[in-house]
Amino acid sequence: MAINFFQEDLQYNLQQKNLTKRWLRALAKSEGFKITDLNYIFCSDEYLYQINVDYLDHDTYTDIITFDNSEKENLLEGDIFISIERIVDNAKTQNQDTYKETIRVISHGLLHLCGYKDKTEEEAQLMRSKEDESIKLFFELKENI
Questions:
Q1: Residue 70 sits in which domain range?
Q2: pLDDT class for 63, splitting at 50, 70, 90?
Q3: Rounded mean pLDDT of the chain?
Q4: What's the total number of domains in the chain?
Q5: Strand partners, 68
């Protein structure tokens, strides 16, 4: 059950890594999954933009790209790339705490691996609801440390 955090082309130190790992395992379990190998890669806007162009043929900036490497049902494996610059900008735009926005985006990637989509309005609403639930779970776990 490996959960790893990496940095690509910038320096970023995720706060409370052990708590975040516990939370991700609990979140996956609540959705009926188990994490086998999950990599979060924190990077810049330009790094993630290039991944978007090269691998997804999308000429846009984004906050997250999730690659599902799962081969067995109910076991999660994946690589999740997150732009720290986009998180900071989104947090400012939404008048949100940067740390809370980081937690939201981290959960967003895991929720994609669990099968949630966000292309349609209905899917996006469900995804946002699941993100809100996951943020609540994170802070509940944090209080019980």
A1: 2-143
A2: very high
A3: 97
A4: 1
A5: 78
